[in-house]
Amino acid sequence: QKEVEQNSGPLSVPEGAIASLNCTYSDRGSQSFFWYRQYSGKSPELIMFIYSNGDKEDGRFTAQLNKASQYVSLLIRDSQPSDSATYLCAVNGRGNNRLAFGKGNQVVVIP
Amino acid sequence: DAGVIQSPRHEVTEMGQEVTLRCKPISGHDYLFWYRQTMMRGLELLIYFNNNVPIDDSGMPEDRFSAKMPNASFSTLKIQPSEPRDSAVYFCASTRLGSNYGYTFGSGTRLTVV
């Protein structure tokens, strides 16, 4: 089982709609969870982090964490063409200082 | 702050040649990470350092890869000899106080081995 899995294929959403991305992780002791955005040809940039169960909102982004089910999700409200990118889920395990990344989900916002 | 600085941005080399990638972390960051990204495998951790000391190199694919961090402001990743399957984007990232705070990535080095 991979440490971090993002299984959905490319996601196309109309401008103004909600984009929903999901991620599951295998280490039940994981403590910190991150979402990175990566534009084509660019490096990943941190957009959200969450440590506690529940929701965390930052502007148009909401991260949701459910440790019992071992999943974390990202919602992008009022999607804009500038949100078109690949979104990477990353998880930090208990007792170590390295992040394991999922392979990412591509989001395409259609004007 | 200039962020994490990597050089070169692009490198094209012939199979068998030595390749050296360079990274300057953000000042004050005590953790430095080297990742490799490919379409097939995504982002893979190769090695990371804490206070210039290698902590986990289990991701280094084979003995052809080596990494050093002689001081807090400089690290190198060396591939000798290079092979076509090493073609990828190599990212350096740094953070302070461990990855609970996320990483800042450099712009990456796109390596092509022909």
Query: Over the alpha carbons, how many angstroms does the gyration radius of chain B reach?
Result: 13 Å
Measured by residues with Cβ under 8 Å of the partner chain's Cβ, the largest interface is: A-B, 22 and 23 residues
In whole angstroms, the N-to-C terminal distance of chain A is 37 Å
Proportion of helical residues of chain B: under 10%
**Tally of alpha and pi helices of chain B:** 0
- Compute the average pLDDT of chain B: 94
- The coarse silhouette of chain A is globular
Class inferred from helices and paired strands of chain A: mainly beta
Shape of chain B: globular
**Fraction of residues in helix of chain A:** under 10%
Oligomer: heterodimer
N-to-C terminal Cα separation of chain B, in Å? 36 Å
- Counting DSSP E segments of at least 2 residues, the number of strands of chain A comes to 11
Uncertain regions spanning at least 5 consecutive residues of chain B: none
In percent, how much strand structure appears in the residues of chain A?
over 45%
Q: What is the residue-mean pLDDT of chain A, rounded to a whole number?
A: 92
Structural class of chain B, by secondary structure, is mainly beta
**Contiguous runs where pLDDT drops below 50 for at least 5 residues of chain A:** none
Question: How would you describe the overall organization of this protein?
Answer:
The complex is a heterodimer of chains A (111) and B (114). Chain A is mainly beta. Chain A is 0% helix and 54% strand. In chain A, strand 9 and strand 10 form a beta hairpin. The mean pLDDT of chain A is 92. In chain B, a hairpin with a 2-residue loop joins strand 5 and strand 6.
Condensed summary:
Chain A has 111 residues and is mainly β. Chain A has strands at residues 4-5, 11-14, 19-25, 32-38, 45-50, 54-58, 61-66, 71-76, 85-92, 99-101, 105-110. At the A-B interface, strand 5, strand 9 and strand 10 of A face strand 4, strand 5 and strand 10 of B.
